[in-house]
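Per your request, structure below.
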């Protein structure tokens, strides 16, 4: 991982962020297929973060470390910016311990546990050379389109996916017209209504206002956005519209 991100940083100096999270990724069965120790490795997360930070920054490992002679190449004048990504107090405490920026995955659970994690991060923060003060962010699901109706139409793909994910069933993203035509139960429709009420979905000015309000409410240094749609052109347009709304001058988004 350190070498992969060192290569990326060499190709785009100063533009690469390295997000570190404890979760193995994917569902439990797939994670186990990829790594038979997936259930045990999270217990070593703080030590793994310590070692990875040393390798990715070109700093020596701790004294008498068994891998002290191992180096991550290439080496350059800049290093990737390391973040801790989390959805609980655990990641917040790890970020605070190492004096790293912390981003809470608000889109995982519609914000449950977010305020508590941010508070734990700030209360336990240990200043570091690169980050003398806490640097917090939230990652939210955001989707915009020229009109609110169009944005909500494309949002149906995620709404159905999330309902099934909550049951432990992982579906592929369906076209919005297919998702909208699904015979939802009354309880499922109520759940979709609740999801939509908390989602950052709407016309560009509406979504931008929601993002600014959340950043102000939680005194955030940054906001990260994730956008999943069935149609990639809809996703790219959403990022483009938001970039323009925030005055970034982006004509297109890669």
């Amino acid at each position: 991982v350190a070498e992969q991100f060192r290569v990326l940083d060499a190709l785009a100096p100063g533009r690469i962020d390295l997000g570190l999270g404890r979760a193995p990724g994917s569902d439990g069965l797939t994670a186990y297929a990829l790594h038979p120790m997936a259930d045990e490795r999270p217990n070593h997360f703080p030590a793994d973060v310590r070692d990875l930070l040393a390798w990715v920054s070109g700093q020596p490992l701790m004294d008498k470390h068994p891998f002290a002679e191992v180096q991550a190449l290439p080496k350059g004048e800049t290093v990737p910016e390391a973040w801790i990504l989390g959805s609980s107090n655990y990641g917040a405490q790890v970020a605070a311990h190492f004096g790293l920026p912390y981003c809470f995955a608000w889109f995982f659970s519609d914000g449950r546990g977010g305020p508590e994690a941010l508070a734990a991060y700030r209360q336990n923060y240990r200043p570091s050379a690169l980050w003398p003060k806490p640097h917090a962010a939230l990652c939210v699901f955001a989707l915009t389109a020229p009109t609110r109706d169009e944005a909500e139409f494309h949002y149906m793909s995620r709404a159905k996916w999330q309902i099934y994910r909550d049951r432990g069933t992982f579906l592929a993203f369906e076209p919005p017209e297919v998702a909208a035509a699904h015979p939802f139960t009354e309880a499922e429709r109520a759940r979709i209504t609740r999801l939509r009420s908390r989602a950052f979905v709407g016309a560009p000015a509406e979504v931008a206002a929601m993002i600014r309000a959340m950043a102000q409410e939680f005194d955030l240094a940054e906001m990260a956005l994730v956008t999943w749609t069935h149609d990639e052109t809809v996703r790219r347009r959403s990022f483009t519209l938001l970039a323009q709304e925030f005055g970034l001058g982006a004509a297109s988004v890669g």
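The CA atoms of residues 54 and 61 lie 6 Å apart.

Regards,
D.
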